Amino acid sequence: MATQRIYYDDAYVREFTAKVLSCEAVPPNLQAGRTQTAWAVVLDRTALYPASGGQPHDFGKLGDAGVLEVQDEGDEVIHIVDRELDEGAAVAGCVDWPRRFDHMQQHTGQHLLSAVFQERAGLPTVSFHLGEEICTIDLRGPEPSDELLEGIERAANHIIFENRDLHVHYATPEQLAERGVRKRIEREGMLRVIEIVGADYQPCGGTHVRSTGQIGLVLVRRRSKVRGDWRVEFVSGRRAERLARADFRQLRDAAQALQCAPDEVHAAAERVVAERDAHFAALRGSLQQLAEAGAALTLHSAVAAGDGLCVVERVLEGVHPDFPGLFAAALAKRERVVALVAASDTGQILFAQHPAEGRDMAVLLKRVLGEVDGKGGGTKDFARGKLADASAVGRAIELARTWLA
Ligand SMILES: [Zn+2]
Description:
Elements: E1 4-5, H1 6-9, E2 15-26, E3 38-43, E4 45-46, E5 60-62, E6 65-73, E7 76-81, E8 90-95, H2 97-121, E9 125-130, E10 135-139, H3 146-161, E11 166-171, H4 173-178, E12 191-196, E13 200-203, E14 218-226, E15 229-236, H5 237-258, H6 265-300, E16 310-316, H7 323-331, E17 337-343, E18 348-353, H8 361-369, E19 374-378, E20 382-387, H9 393-404
Parallel strand pairs: 1-4, 16-17
Antiparallel strand pairs: 2-3, 2-8, 3-7, 5-6, 5-8, 6-7, 9-10, 10-15, 11-12, 12-13, 14-15, 17-18, 18-20, 19-20
The chain binds zinc ion.
Zinc ion binds at residues 107, 111, 194, 204, 206, 208.
């Protein structure tokens, strides 16, 4: 027997009584997050909305039983509840109203936005999703620009401020076609149609507010490309209020951190990043000079072996992470030099040679990393690695020196 859907005619019914037509135990379903046995209940009538058409299901109560899920099964609405109900008995039901009203605000906001996108930009909505935080519509056509999105938001809010009525109609597919309703219709027979006076006329089985004023406000957020369509994020009603408040908090905190006024955050952030980049460039230059000077000093007292090759070993400590690499490179600018440099606090190891030397630093590093745990790589003249245990740098350098000889 078909369940009478009270919300079709009045989406504002929060409490109702109904007769329990059937109640069957259903096993736990981990995918649906149910670890306990639940019961599937069919009533003769219900005000609880089942998940369908992009709108999530309601929560609520049937007697003392909590409603975990509401499913749309053909003509029937199935309520998944957490305790058994007596078949044939009457039961008092209620709807988790804050959740439902939120869904009504988001869903009606979607009707309005989709209508305005179609009307003003010729962009049809191909799908809709009402998420826990954010709602999305997927539009087909060219990329909507920032200016377009702002214009759509303004036009939709204008219709909200006009507080236009919404009406529920029943019509045949032929009657809809006569009115130029473009949406593809899959069902036969009479269709439920939602009209926003002067703005929209769409077949829909969902729940909606009575007049556009109750949408409160729509805020259009980001857009992104999803499988060839344009996904536009938006929020309506209470969500818009919460998001605007959260945005303000973010802006206020960012302004505080940047020590500027909220309307100067963008300029201040750009300035801070530019300063950071300039400081980094200056630091890099100083490190380079320090590496060159350190290399000159080191090579001044270095002693070459009998064959003229000069292997310089150096374990550094407490230096900037960029320094060991610059230092090794500076050493290896001198002919007949091979540099074996490490940092004992970070575990970095660097092997560098003058390009005229015929050895292979990458191969040498690989061989060392075969003995001492770590990662790294490089070229014939310059290789860098990082040891898993920083205290093993002495051993790594020693191995490299042994294999160089
Ligand atoms: Zn709808």
